[in-house]
Amino acid sequence: MRLVIIGAGFAGMYSALSAARLREIHGVSPEELEITLVAPEPTLVIRPRLYEPKPETLTAPLVDVLKAIDVTYVQGSAETIETKSRTVRIATAKGTRKTLTYDRLVVATGSRLFRPNIPGLAEHGFSVDSLDDAIALDKHLQGLAKRPAVDGRDTVVVTGGGFTGIEAATEMPSRLRKIFGDKAKPRVIIVDRNLAIAPDMGETSRPVIEDALKKLGIETRLGAGVASLDESGITLSNGEHIETETVIWAAGIRAAPLTQQIPSERDNFGRLLVDRHLRVPGVDGVFATGDAARAACDDDGNYALMSCQHATRMGAFAGNNAAAELLGVPTKPYHQKGYVTCLDLGEAGALFTRGWEREVTMVGDVAKKTKQEINTVWIYPPKAERAAALALADPERVTDVTGFL
Fold it and tell me: What number of other Cβ atoms are within 10 A of residue 154's Cβ?
C-alpha cells in the first residue's frame, strides 16, 4: 500500500508525521504501508516570516525528520494527477519524468499569491509570497543604498491592507533605516481597495492597528486600487501617482493550480471542497488539506483560513485519515474550534486576538514576545527523533490553542 503526499509545507509535513504516527500505533511496517512525500525541495519554508530580512535563513530541513519516521522523500514537482488510474506524474530535479501510483493521495500543495493582469505588475512588482520572491525583494532593498536618494528611492508602497500587507509594511521602516542609516526618513504607504484597514481583523482590532501605523509613520490610501506600475512608480485607480522604486504586492492568495486537476468542486479561491474527514467528495482515494482545501472547522459556519495555524492541524487530520482508510481503522473528523491570531506590527509590537470575533487579548511588547515565540519555535519542524516527532503529530493536539493563555 502507498500513501502519497504532495507538498512539503505545513500541511504536507504534518500529513506525513500523522500518517507515520498512525502506522506505528498499529504496528504496520514501512514496507507494508509506504508513505511518500513529493516536493521540489526537502525543506519547510517558514512562509509566515518572509516579510522579515534575510529570508534565505527562513527555511528548515526535513530530510532527517522524514528519515527518522520512515517517510520516503521524492524530489520533484507533481505535474499531473490522474485520479482514475491513481497516478501522479512528477518532473524530477534532473529533468526526467517519474510516475508514482497511489492507494491514497493527500493534496497539500498550498497556495500562491494572486497576481492580476495589471500593467507593469509582473515587471516592477515584488512580493513576500515565496522564498525566491522574498530573497529578490531583500536583495533589491539592500541595493537601494547604492542609488541616488531621489525619485522615490526611500518610498515603499505595499498593495494590500490585510494580514500580509500590514506585516510587510510595519517591518519596513526598521529594515530601511538599517539600509540607509538611522537618520533616514523612509516613507511607507499601504494601498487597499477597502475603505478600512485590515478589513478581516474586526472592529476591536482596527484601532490598535491604526495606532501602530500612526506611530510608525505609515500612510494609507484606502478605497483605491492599482491602475498600473512602471519604472517611475505606481498609479492608483483614483489617478494619484506615487514615485517609488519598490512596490510590494500583497493582495490575496489562491490555491496552487494543481488542485484544478482534481475533478471536483472548488471555491472562489481554488480550494477543493472537502468533507469533515478532509476527503474530496466523489473522488475515491483523494484527500485535500491546508490551503488546497475548504474545510469546516466547526458546526457554527466557520471555515479554515489559508494560514499555517489551520494548515498544520488540517495536515495532521488528513494524513491520519488517509492512513486510517488503508489500515482499515476509523477516521477522525477534522475540527478546530480554537482560533487565535497574532499580527506583527514591527517596532510597534504586535496584536494578539482570540476567537473568530477577534477579541483583543494582548498588544504591544507582550504580544510581540508571543509572536516571536510562534514564529521561531512553534511553527518549526520537530527534531529528528522518531518517538518525539510522532508524539507531536496527534491530530487532536496539533495547533490546539483552546487553552492558550
Answer: 20
